[in-house]
């Protein structure tokens, strides 16, 4: 049985958890708590308030927005 590699924003999750020492679910909830802010506003929050790099912040926001879960 072959496993497809994780693609898209979720492919960043292991490195985000390792680098920022918080489970991805916490980051996702942080973004959900700020909705209905716009995509780039949410990215800016993660970067400025939590020191996250742009690619990692963008991956979390994109994933949360694509799921539509609050």
TrEMBL record:
InterPro entries: DUF4287. It holds the Pfam family DUF4287. It comes from the Bacteria. This is DUF4287 domain-containing protein.
């Amino acid at each position: 049985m072959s496993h497809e590699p994780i693609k898209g924003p979720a492919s960043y999750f292991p490195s985000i958890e390792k680098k920022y020492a918080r489970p991805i679910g916490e980051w996702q909830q942080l973004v959900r708590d700020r909705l209905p802010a716009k995509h780039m506003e949410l990215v800016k929050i993660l970067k400025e308030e939590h020191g996250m790099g742009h690619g990692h912040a963008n991956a979390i926001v994109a994933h949360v927005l694509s799921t539509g879960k609050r």
